């Protein structure tokens, strides 16, 4: 082997065009430590180039070969350099300063004494006195050992003993071990007892710098190929890789003392005992038990213990249904009698329809007895859409961090549990991972635990994913992945402690792949032998991990057989006592399962009293001026000319006491922040607004990252304003904002779709959490969805926010005529599941925003927002519509000429949203202002029966018409038609005017669109 390659192999990964520069950087870095007697002059490009081309040797080669034989034979700075370079340090980073440069380090050959002999009188290479010449085989053998070490670090996980069943390997197409142990082919049996210098890229030596090859391989096998498999070498941070190496390679890292082992056994016994007890007491009930993965409970408790000792005070958790009841019982310590009443089939004692027991959440505050610290534990409710809660947990965690001033995530931690098939198969997992490092969405690291059954419902991994591991999705964010055999409890404990420490150290995501099995089928009633006979033949022969570990501790003398039995009997008695208490209950209470309690929010309030939403004009003026100006005292802040025109127009509006849509929005938010309400707006491009109308953040045109947010600088003591441009995601981001809104009721959280049509990719969050969350889980939220909506010729994907879908899911009865009372409007809001509105004026938009906070309860608001109306000259409001005494108008009647002689009016047109302005212009052009009344229904659901009735009675001789932009099978028609009939006691009928039915929400042809608009206006206004 040419010695000219001894340093070249360190540069192999560097692009050829930069190798010379890289070599210089490394060499100059090391040589910069020189003193009069400690180092030669810096190498020049001319000296390095022949070496890189492989045409000659130089003094660095000689030192490198000497270093391979004995690291102490070279200067300490070169020793450090070679170790870092072989460990993969980036160019310029391999050099580190030595502790002292004043005297040569003992046993170190001074570089100055080497240079003349190395280079010769004329600069030619020469033999080095005092340094033994190293053969090519020695060099090759050392490089082979380094290759072996690196192979184990990169691919050791692929041959680790991870499967408790012993039937799977990750890379089944290759002979086992070749990908790791193939490097040993170049070494003979005699080499096994030779000592080799350990590079700095490994910690297997502990304090030793060299080990026999036999011991090197043994320690590598122990670290990477037993029951733990570590994937981390894809991480692009040397510091993080070295941190992980040290945690797994140091000798005896998994050691536990007797007390720790007894605690582990007790927790494992509780996990196993809980499932066995439910299986005996409720043999025909689905419970999605944890049999086969009982180690999940001790694993979670270990993470909580270690994290608590590192300062974490609150844990927000999300999980699918498998093992949920056990987690609630043994991790959160939810009262067992509350759990057992869910099996009894009792009537509900409070509001809500409830949900199956393995979907429910909880919130508990308790003492962690290991650390003697009080902690908060929340498990977020989740439907059968297994990973849907992932972003919700993240949003809730971020909110807790925000409201507790936990800017670094040291006090609040999110833990997400996953199933293997869902983790690899559901896209929301990927979307959620990509929020992990975004400034406005990061939770500063999440610990993911995969309960890896190695099977989905009935589908094995060969048919359910294309990647080797179910955890491969985590590699996209450089999260380390710790695979561990769930039947090795002590290995699981080590992995959990390392995961907690990783998150505390680097504040990044980490994944624990808990490789286990599912002892029963998908649920306790299912028969798994139908589809997996071979797997379940093996499973039926496996002992539970509790028995395996209990016998291990008995054999080693850590516990006695009697102590083991006492632990099991003690927990059995606890379960029996709780069962007795549960049988005395006559009702179940959904309130026991709330995962986000709002302490003190509902107490002391009139449940039907709405606070005023109008505000004083001086506040409106102040907010209007502040959002119309550049940063105060910043004359050098350069604003884009187009933005300056917008600011000037805003100032003119303030002077004229009018607002457009963006101004009304800003005044609503600004006034809420003045009252101490945090406002958070999130979504794609929301800073500017998709339609370039909002511009809530002003950017310096000549200085990068210099920006100004006027709404954040209105008052010195105002609440925060958060405006967050999101990733190109709807599912995860809407879920995130839902989780954020659940944490604090005194906040206004808004998610804006780029176009309302795009909410369809977040439909799972809408259906499972927003529409039904309060009914299932008594979970209130005031989340606002802003959905740009309107038929404006922009095609089928940029027109409709699917208003009809939200109205279909509204929970008011179309055939039930409510009793009209003074608090009728508020009672409607209290009884319905959400509010659906389509405002046509900035003032009404302003009021409905403020009403979200003024209500004594919280309901989601689904708001169809405009596009063309953002700049429509008629779509403006006066300050007079926003001051004290004004309020949100559920219905806006026609106040024009039709009110003079209502008996002569021929037609009353009801509509909502933008189409009103089209009808208004067409009516004026046709000269029908005194014959046709235009009435806007602003709040569609709950339906304003009382106001509609008054409006219809005002025009006794008129035809009633509903006009809408959307096609007949879309929009609000199918919702309002039966409610009009109920309101009018079926005495008068309402006609439809608009587009006919269609499969597509809008045409993509401009000419067709204009023809449809003309027909819509004609059919509506024909009398």
TrEMBL record:
Cofactor: thiamine diphosphate; Mg(2+)
Superkingdom to which the source organism belongs: Eukaryota
EC numbers on record: 1.2.4.2
GO molecular function ontology, one term from the record: oxoglutarate dehydrogenase (succinyl-transferring) activity
Domain Transketolase-like pyrimidine-binding residue range list: 659-872
Localization per Swiss-Prot or TrEMBL: Mitochondrion; Nucleus
GO cellular component: mitochondrion; nucleus; oxoglutarate dehydrogenase complex
GO annotation, biological process: glycolytic process; tricarboxylic acid cycle
Keyword entries, A-Z: Calcium, Glycolysis, Isopeptide bond, Magnesium, Metal-binding, Mitochondrion, Nucleus, Oxidoreductase, Thiamine pyrophosphate, Transit peptide, Ubl conjugation
Substrates-to-products reaction catalysed: N(6)-[(R)-lipoyl]-L-lysyl-[protein] + 2-oxoglutarate + H(+) = N(6)-[(R)-S(8)-succinyldihydrolipoyl]-L-lysyl-[protein] + CO2
Chain segments annotated as transmembrane: none
InterPro entries, per database record: 2-oxogl_dehyd_N (IPR032106), 2oxoglutarate_DH_E1 (IPR011603), DH_E1 (IPR001017), KGD_C_sf (IPR042179), ODO-1/KGD_C (IPR031717), THDP-binding (IPR029061), Transketolase-like_Pyr-bd (IPR005475)
Cited NCBIfam families: 2oxo_dh_E1, PRK09404.1, PRK12270.1
Family that this chain belongs to: Belongs to the alpha-ketoglutarate dehydrogenase family.
Function per UniProt: The 2-oxoglutarate dehydrogenase complex catalyzes the overall conversion of 2-oxoglutarate to succinyl-CoA and CO(2). It contains multiple copies of three enzymatic components: 2-oxoglutarate dehydrogenase (E1), dihydrolipoamide succinyltransferase (E2) and lipoamide dehydrogenase (E3).
Protein's UniProt name: 2-oxoglutarate dehydrogenase complex component E1
């Amino acid at each position: 082997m040419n010695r000219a390659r001894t340093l070249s192999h360190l540069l192999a990964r560097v692009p050829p065009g930069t190798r010379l520069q890289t070599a210089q950087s490394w060499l100059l870095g090391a040589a910069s430590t020189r003193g009069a007697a400690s180092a030669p002059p810096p190498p020049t490009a001319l000296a390095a180039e022949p070496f890189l081309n492989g045409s000659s040797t130089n003094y660095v080669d000689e030192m490198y070969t000497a270093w391979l034989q004995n690291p102490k034979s070279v200067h300490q700075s070169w020793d450090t350099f070679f170790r870092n370079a072989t460990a993969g340090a980036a160019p310029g980073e391999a050099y580190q300063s030595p502790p002292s440069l004043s005297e040569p380090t003992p046993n170190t050959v001074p570089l100055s004494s080497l240079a003349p002999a190395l280079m010769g009188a004329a600069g030619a290479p020469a033999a080095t006195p005092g340094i033994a010449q190293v053969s090519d085989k020695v060099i090759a053998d050392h490089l082979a050992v380094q290759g072996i070490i690196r192979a184990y670090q990169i691919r050791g996980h692929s041959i680790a003993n991870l499967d408790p069943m012993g039937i799977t390997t990750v890379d089944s197409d290759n002979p086992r071990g070749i990908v790791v142990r193939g490097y040993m082919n170049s070494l003979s049996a005699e080499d096994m007892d030779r000592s080799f210098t350990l590079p700095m890229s490994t910690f297997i030596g502990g304090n030793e710098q060299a080990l026999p090859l036999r011991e090197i391989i043994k320690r590598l096998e122990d670290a990477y190929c037993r029951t733990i498999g570590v994937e981390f070498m894809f991480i692009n941070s040397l510091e993080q890789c070295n941190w992980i190496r040290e945690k797994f390679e140091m000798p005896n890292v998994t050691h536990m003392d007797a007390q720790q082992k007894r605690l582990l056994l007790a927790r494992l016994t509780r996990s196993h005992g809980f499932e066995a007890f439910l299986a005996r007491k409720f043999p025909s009930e689905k419970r999605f038990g944890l049999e086969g993965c009982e180690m999940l409970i001790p694993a979670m408790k270990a993470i909580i213990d270690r994290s608590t000792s590192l300062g974490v005070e609150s844990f927000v958790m999300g999980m699918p249904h498998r093992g949920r009841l056990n987690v609630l019982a043994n991790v959160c310590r939810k009262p067992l009698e509350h759990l057992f009443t869910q099996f009894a089939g009792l009537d509900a004692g409070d509001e809500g329809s409830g949900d199956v027991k393995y979907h429910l959440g909880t919130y508990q505050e308790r003492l962690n007895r290991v650390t003697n610290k009080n902690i908060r534990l929340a498990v977020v409710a989740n439907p059968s859409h297994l990973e849907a809660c992932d972003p919700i947990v993240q949003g809730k965690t971020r909110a807790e961090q925000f409201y507790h001033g936990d800017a670094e995530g040291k006090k609040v931690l999110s833990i997400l549990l996953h199933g293997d098939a869902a983790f690899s198969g559901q896209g929301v997992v990927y979307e959620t991972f990509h929020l992990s490092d975004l400034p406005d969405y990061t939770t500063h690291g999440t610990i993911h635990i995969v309960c890896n059954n190695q099977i989905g419902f009935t589908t094995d991994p060969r048919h359910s994913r294309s990647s080797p591991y179910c955890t491969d999705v985590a590699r996209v964010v450089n999260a380390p992945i710790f695979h561990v055999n769930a039947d090795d409890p002590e290995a699981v404990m080590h992995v959990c402690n390392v995961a907690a420490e990783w998150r505390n150290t680097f504040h990044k995501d980490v994944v624990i792949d808990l490789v286990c099995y599912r002892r029963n089928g998908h649920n306790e009633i299912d028969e798994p032998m139908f589809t997996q006979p071979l797997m379940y033949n093996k499973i039926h022969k496996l002992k539970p991990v509790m028995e395996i570990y209990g016998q291990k501790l008995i054999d080693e003398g850590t516990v006695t057989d009697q102590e083991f039995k006492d632990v099991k009997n003690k927990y059995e008695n606890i379960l029996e006592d709780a069962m007795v208490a549960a049988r005395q209950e006559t009702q179940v209470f959904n309130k026991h399962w709330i995962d986000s309690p709002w302490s003190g929010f509902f107490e002391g309030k009139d449940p039907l009293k709405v606070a005023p939403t109008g505000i004083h004009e001086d506040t409106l003026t102040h907010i209007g001026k502040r959002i119309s100006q550049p940063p105060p005292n910043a004359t050098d802040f350069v604003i884009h000319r187009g933005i300056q025109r917008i600011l000037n127009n805003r100032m003119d509006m303030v002077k004229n006491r009018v607002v457009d849509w963006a101004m009304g929005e800003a005044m609503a938010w600004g006034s809420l922040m003045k009252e101490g309400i945090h406002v958070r707006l999130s979504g794609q491009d929301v800073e500017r607004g998709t339609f370039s109308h909002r511009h809530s953040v002003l950017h310096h045109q000549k200085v990068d990252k210099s920006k100004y947010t006027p709404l954040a600088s209105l008052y010195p003591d105002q609440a925060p304003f958060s405006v967050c441009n999101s990733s190109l995601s709807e599912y995860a981001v809407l879920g995130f904002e839902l989780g954020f809104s659940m944490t604090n009721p005194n906040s206004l959280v808004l998610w804006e779709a780029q176009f309302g049509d795009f909410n369809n990719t977040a439909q799972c969050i809408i259906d499972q959490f927003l529409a039904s969350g309060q009914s299932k889980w008594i979970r209130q939220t005031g989340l606002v969805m802003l959905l740009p909506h309107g038929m404006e010729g922009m095609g089928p994907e940029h027109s409709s926010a699917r208003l009809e879908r939200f109205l279909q899911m509204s929970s008011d009865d179309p055939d039930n005529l409510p009793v009209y009372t003074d608090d009728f409007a508020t009672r409607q809001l209290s009884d319905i599941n959400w509010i659906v509105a389509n405002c046509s004026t900035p003032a009404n938009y302003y009021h409905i925003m403020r009403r979200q906070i003024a209500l004594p309860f919280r309901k989601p608001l689904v708001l169809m927002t405009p596009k063309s109306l953002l700049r429509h000259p008629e779509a403006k409001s006066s300050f007079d519509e926003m001051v004290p005494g004004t309020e949100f108008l559920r219905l806006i009647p026609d106040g024009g000429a039709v009110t003079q002689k209502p008996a002569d009016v021929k037609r009353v047109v009801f509509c909502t949203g933008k189409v009103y302005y089209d009808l208004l212009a067409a009516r004026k052009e046709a000269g029908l202002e005194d014959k046709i009344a235009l009435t806007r229904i602003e709040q569609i659901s709950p339906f304003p029966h009382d106001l509609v009735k008054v409006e219809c009675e005002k025009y006794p001789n008129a035809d009633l018409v509903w006009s809408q932009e959307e096609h007949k099978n879309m929009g609000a028609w199918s919702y309002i038609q039966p409610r009009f009939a109920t309101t009018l006691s079926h005495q008068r009928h309402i006609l439809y005017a608009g587009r006919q039915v269609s499969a597509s929400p809008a045409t993509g042809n401009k000419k067709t669109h204009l023809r449809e608009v003309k027909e819509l206006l004609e059919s509506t206004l024909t009398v």
